[in-house]
């Protein structure tokens, strides 16, 4: 009986409502560890995907392209080929239901499917991480670092320094970006960052993020302001061919064009791949030819030696080159966006690498074993419900700390820091310690202010800016002023400062 279209519709609506309640219930639970947070995020993502799939089925049913839903509703209303008979349709339907349950007596048992849905809340999705990634806490870029280190576009730097530069592809020289190894390296880096981001942030809509990045990139590319690729669209033929450093539409004769000067004419000719030598008149005549004649129709004698003519063997390679360059620039823009989203992870990765460099092999092995033991103990205690009505912080043993200790350290007192993005710190100790932590330091760097002891206890952006202005003014008074402090001596041995000496010299007194 559940095979009817209306019953399928009802069951689908019920499934969507159940999944929505489960999502809300799951998100109301605060995860205790990073592993729990990842499991919760992936569970919610799986349930959202189920909701989307079921909703698509409902949309298809309501669109009713084949008319099956309309026919079923008409049949329930007693509409037949001979006319409308409500009572006849009702009793026929009742007879069909009774006959069905007579043949299938087990179908009378009411099955509560809520238990099946509740199982989704304790499900542990399988998330694969390498040993270096630490369950999503760190990045593992060693393979990409080796490729960068051994390439012509890379540099001979350490892994810690690579963690600072891999997110800045715009600083690589443009000549090195046109090579095939750089393109392959960029594709691998982008694929890894996407894969890592999808595993650690499954609730983020990466397609929407990339669509926004692409739209902003297209606008900047059109005006030639993509970072690291300024005016690249014109250089690679994706702009109109008569677009040079000089607007030829403003000139009607060669003599008028000569006013631009030899250097600017040379730059415009070089941008088009034409010869740049000769007198200023020859350069102007050569450039003026491109005003009414397309580049592909110009005589090859006008092109520089070694440059490719725009039309060769009946094909136009320039737009293809432009498309390749544009694709590389777009990949760089996506990498920069992902690195901004993973900024905290990059900082943690660098700190972890620096910490490992100070450890011996035995200490690293001991730390790895300790992490494994801690992970096993966490998995064993996951099923145990901890009674914590006051919502006290957890201690080192995974149990709530004593209430007197909670009051002693003032953990119920909240401190907000505007520089940290209005982040909350509980307790005076955590508040004082956060001034030296990465979040506060990053906020101060964004404001362009050094994070010194002078700015301790200051959490307001406005107060920090005012104090920094006062410090700069004070430092300006203490700076050496040559007009007042630089000393000069005349022939008689008298000492003057620079200003006095200059004034007397002008007056002819010394």
TrEMBL record:
Family listed: Belongs to the SF3A3 family.
Domain Matrin-type: residue ranges: 415-446
Superkingdom in the source lineage: Eukaryota
Ranges where the record places region Disordered: 358-384
This protein's GO CC annotations: spliceosomal complex
Protein name: Splicing factor SF3a60 homolog
Native organism: Nicotiana tabacum (Common tobacco)
Record's keyword terms, sorted: Metal-binding, mRNA processing, mRNA splicing, Nucleus, Phosphoprotein, Zinc, Zinc-finger
């Amino acid at each position: 009986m559940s095979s009817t279209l209306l019953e399928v519709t009802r069951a689908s609506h019920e499934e969507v409502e159940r999944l929505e309640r489960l999502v809300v219930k799951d998100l109301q639970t605060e995860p205790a560890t990073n592993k729990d947070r990842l499991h919760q995020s992936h569970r919610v993502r799986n349930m959202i995907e189920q909701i989307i799939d079921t909703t698509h089925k409902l949309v298809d049913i309501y669109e009713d392209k084949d008319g099956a839903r309309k026919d079923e509703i008409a049949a329930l209303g007693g509409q037949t080929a001979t006319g409308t008979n409500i009572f006849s349709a009702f009793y026929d339907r009742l007879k069909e239901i009774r006959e069905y349950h007579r043949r299938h007596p087990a179908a009378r048992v009411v099955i509560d499917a809520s238990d099946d849905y509740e199982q989704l809340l304790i499900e542990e999705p399988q998330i694969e991480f390498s040993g270096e990634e630490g369950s999503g806490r760190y990045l593992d870029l060693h393979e990409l670092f080796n490729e960068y280190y051994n390439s012509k576009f890379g540099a001979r730097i350490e892994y810690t320094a690579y963690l600072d530069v891999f997110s800045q592809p715009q600083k690589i020289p443009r000549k090195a970006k046109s090579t095939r190894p750089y393109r392959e390296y960029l594709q691998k880096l982008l694929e890894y960052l996407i894969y890592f981001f999808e595993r650690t942030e499954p609730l983020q809509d990466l397609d929407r993020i990339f669509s926004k990045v692409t739209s902003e990139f297209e606008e900047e590319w059109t005006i030639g302001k993509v970072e690291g690729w300024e005016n690249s669209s014109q250089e690679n033929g994706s702009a109109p061919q008569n677009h040079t450093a000089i607007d030829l539409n403003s000139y009607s004769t060669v003599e008028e064009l000569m006013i631009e000067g030899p250097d600017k004419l040379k730059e415009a000719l070089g941008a088009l791949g034409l010869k740049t030598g000769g007198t200023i008149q020859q350069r102007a005549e050569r450039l003026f030819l491109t005003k009414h004649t397309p580049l592909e129709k110009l005589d090859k004698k006008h092109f520089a030696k070694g440059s490719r003519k725009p039309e060769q063997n009946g094909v136009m390679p320039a737009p293809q080159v432009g498309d390749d360059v544009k694709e590389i620039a777009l990949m760089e823009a996506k990498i920069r966006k992902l690195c901004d989203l993973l900024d905290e992870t990059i900082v943690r990765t660098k700190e972890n690498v620096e910490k490992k460099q100070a450890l011996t092999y035995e200490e690293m092995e001991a730390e790895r074993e300790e992490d494994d033991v801690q992970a096993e103990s966490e998995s064993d205690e996951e099923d145990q419900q901890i009674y914590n009505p006051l919502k006290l912080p957890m201690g080192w043993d995974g149990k709530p700390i004593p209430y007197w200790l909670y009051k002693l350290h003032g953990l119920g007192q909240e401190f907000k820091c505007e520089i940290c993005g209005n982040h909350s710190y509980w307790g005076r100790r955590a508040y004082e310690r956060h001034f030296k932590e990465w979040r506060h330091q990053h906020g101060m760097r964004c404001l362009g202010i050094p994070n010194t002891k002078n700015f301790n206890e200051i959490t307001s952006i406005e107060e920090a800016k005012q104090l920094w202005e006062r410090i700069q003014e004070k430092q300006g008074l203490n700076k050496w002023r040559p007009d007042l402090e630089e000393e000069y001596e005349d022939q008689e041995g008298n000492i003057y400062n620079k200003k006095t000496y200059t004034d007397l010299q002008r007056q002819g007194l010394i």
